[in-house]
Design goal:
45% of the residues lie in helices and 14% in strands. By secondary structure, the protein is an alpha/beta fold. The chain has three domains: 223 residues, Class II aldolase/adducin N-terminal domain (L-fuculose-1-phosphate Aldolase); 171 residues, 3-Layer(aba) Sandwich (L-fuculose-1-phosphate Aldolase), CATH 3.40.225.10; 238 residues, Rossmann fold (3-Layer(aba) Sandwich), CATH 3.40.50.720. Helix 6 crosses helix 9 and helix 11 crosses helix 15. The radius of gyration is 30 Å and the shape is globular. The mean pLDDT is 94.
Length: 677
């Protein structure tokens, strides 16, 4: 493994953080923590932690010896000093001789001794860091270390690899018990500079940052060299065969089957690459993939075992659906049995989590990782790739072996770890929302409100420059899509299915506003208007419905209609006519697909400053009515201008009104002439 330490970079960190009021110790702690965190073969998504022992002044002016240790929720790759909360060291050391401390008491004690009570919770391994009498302590979940420990005879293998400066420690669940065990091991052999924790990870320690980091690279490199020397054989593969469907067709089916009820929704993310294919297509996949994760904390994100689906050769998507349903049923039975067998073997009363897998491996297709949002789904995918890499490597030289199922269960149902990922669920969490005409004023305001309430939002627009500019400003998915082109729409929804698993809410918002007296407008103009203001909505709605039917977990279509659909304006026929047809389309979808749990509603908005209703148009309309632009925009019963955010709120209201379909919600401040009859 490459050593990435740079004296130049280290000095830059020292200067930078000195200017921000931090010590050299803290600057170097941040530097080496990032070096470790940015190496995916050492640290992945919250795994591992680091610390430094130093001193700080509290507000009382007194100087305290402290342990600055990685805090919960911080990523080592991007850590800042704030991510290393300072805990008073002496109170921690005073518990060295205490025989037992519950997890809850441990956390409370650590929090009580924070210098800043607003700091994040210190790591569950805080006491372990405190008990090791070194300034710098580094901890990672190195792939290579997992490889040499997660096999039969892992203890003896490690003893052969590493010298007398390393102690090998059998698996103990993280917490105060592990800290006590490490203190015992170190007391017996105070000359060591490294601890290998079987089935867990590696600790290195020294009185300077570079030495602790160098030791980490040294011992991981030794493990890598030992693995390379082992006699290796490839994992036997199943034969590649043809399937009459694509991953984007599979994704909505899997996503639907994940839901134990129609209100429970997950995001799934598809991926495949050479290494994953090698792992997934192994003949003994069911055996080696069910022996546990590469390191125990992974179980929090990916559960103890994946769901495996093996489609038959030349299967159609309908045949796959049958096989997948059976696989899901068997998985849920297996998980329930796993829970019932182990719940009484561990401390405290346990309430079963949902029975849905977080990893679905479809042979000859790929990995579908699962989460409450795209971020957690991708994390599950990343962890699975690491697990696949480690397990594959071990299986090539031995047989993969992990901690007993009971110990894995203890981690999965560990209250401290569960608390990290348990947050109050947002109302649209797990929902995938697609918005057309997204770069416009209404489209973007709609994006903001749906994002605020927890949805994964995909923004579509036909303007390449605008959608590219929007993508540079936000992290959410932006896709170029000409909604008047069926092929372009089809491709966009395929991308969405592969990335998120499907679609729950379509906000069909795209449109333009051509004008002209109806007898005099060209056929070309009228047809173009119908393409944009009617057929584009049909294109998107029909694709969305195809996916929603496959998911079988309900769905919602929302259309941006217009007052022109019920109250035609002079010289506005080219716009109003397709909008009238759109009103009928909205109701037709409600009629045809209500039995599938798919709702269809519309928003009837009037006089909204947007890409359609430009300042020039507003000025001309106001002039024609001999009023000011301000009075024109407030020309309603409430004498109050209606804004794009009001339309966005209407879309949100309809999206969350689960018993409403075939309805049109008017947002115009009150206009009796344009009201629905």
């Amino acid at each position: 493994m490459k050593n990435n330490w740079s004296n130049t970079e280290a000095n830059k960190y020292i200067r930078k953080y000195k200017n921000l009021g931090h010590s050299k110790d803290m600057a170097l702690r941040v530097y080496t923590t990032r070096l470790l965190g940015r190496n995916s073969e050492l640290v992945l998504h919250g795994g591992g932690n680091t610390s430094v022992k130093t001193s700080v002044k509290d507000i009382d002016g007194k100087k305290y010896d402290v342990l600055c240790v990685k805090g919960s929720g911080w990523d080592m790759a991007e850590i800042e000093p704030e991510g290393l909360p300072a805990v008073k060291l002496q109170p921690l050391l005073s518990l060295k001789n205490k025989k037992y401390l519950s997890d809850e008491d441990m956390v409370n004690y650590q929090k009580r001794n924070l210098i800043n009570v607003k700091s994040p919770n210190p790591s569950v391994e805080t006491f372990l860091h405190a008990f090791l009498p070194f300034k710098f302590v580094d901890h990672t979940h190195s792939d290579a270390i997992m490889n040499v420990t997660n096999r039969p005879g892992g203890l003896n293998f490690c003893k052969k690899i590493f010298g007398n400066k390393v102690s090998i420690v059998p698996y103990v669940m993280p917490g105060f018990g592990l800290a006590k065990k490490i203190n015992e091991v170190y007391s017996k052999n105070p000359n060591i500079n490294c601890l290998i924790l079987l089935n867990h990870g590696i600790f290195t320690f020294a009185d300077n940052a570079k030495k602790a980091y160098d030791l980490m690279i040294k011992y991981v490199s030794q493990a890598e060299s030992a693995i390379k020397k082992l006699k290796s054989k490839k994992i036997k593969q199943i034969k590649r065969y043809n399937l009459k469907f694509n991953p984007d067709e599979v994704a909505p089916i899997i996503r639907g089957l994940l839901s134990e009820n129609k209100d429970q929704k997950f995001i799934i993310n598809y991926r495949i690459n050479q290494k994953l294919r090698y792992f997934i297509n192994g003949k003994n996949l069911k055996t080696y993939s069910s022996k546990g994760t590469a390191t125990p904390d992974h179980v929090i994100r990916v559960k103890p075992f994946p769901l495996i689906i093996t489609p038959k050769k030349n299967s159609t998507i309908e045949e796959f659906k049958v096989v997948a349903k059976k696989a899901f049923d068997n998985y849920r039975k297996k998980y329930i049995n796993y829970f019932n067998v182990n719940k009484n073997k561990v401390k405290g009363k346990k309430i079963m989590l949902d029975t849905s897998p977080r990893v679905v491996l479809v042979q000859n297709v790929g990995l579908f990782s699962v989460g409450k949002d795209l971020k957690s789904a991708k994390i599950a995918g990343d962890l699975t790739e690491t697990n696949a890499k480690v397990i594959s490597s071990v299986e090539e030289t031995s047989n993969y072996k992990f901690i007993p199922e009971k110990d894995l269960f203890d981690v999965e149902y560990w209250s401290l770890e569960q608390a990290k990922i348990k947050k109050q669920k947002k109302i649209l969490e797990g929902n995938v929302v697609v918005i057309t005409g997204s770069t416009g004023t209404i489209g973007f305001e709609t994006y903001k409100i749906f994002k605020h309430y927890g949805a994964e939002v995909v923004l579509l627009d036909f303007d390449r420059k605008k959608i590219k500019k929007l993508q540079s400003k936000i992290k959410d998915t932006c896709i170029y899509c000409d909604v008047t082109n069926k092929k372009s729409v089809e491709n966009a929804f395929k991308q969405i299915s592969k990335k998120f698993g499907g679609v729950d809410i379509l906000i069909s918002n795209a449109g333009n506003a051509p004008s002209g007296t109806i007898a005099e407008v060209s056929d070309e103009l009228l047809r173009k208007s119908f393409e944009v203001n009617f057929f584009s909505h049909q294109n998107c709605a029909s694709e969305a419905v195809k996916i929603m039917k496959k998911q079988n977990i309900n769905g919602c279509l929302l259309f941006n209609i217009s007052k022109q659909s019920v109250n035609p304006g002079k010289n506005f026929g080219p716009y109003g006519l397709p909008k009238s047809a759109l009103l009928s389309l909205c109701k037709q979808y409600a009629v045809d697909y209500g039995s599938y749990g798919i709702r269809s509603n519309g928003v009837n908005a009037d006089r909204i400053r947007s890409g359609l209703m430009t300042d020039k148009m507003i000025k001309n309309r106001a002039k024609a009515r001999s009023v000011t632009t301000d009075n024109y925009m407030k020309g309603n019963l409430l004498l109050n201008e209606v804004k794009a955010e009001d339309v966005a709120k209407a879309f949100f209201h309809l999206a969350t009104s689960k018993k409403t379909t075939g309805a049109v919600l008017t947002v115009d401040g009150g206009n009796i002439a344009a009201s629905l009859r």
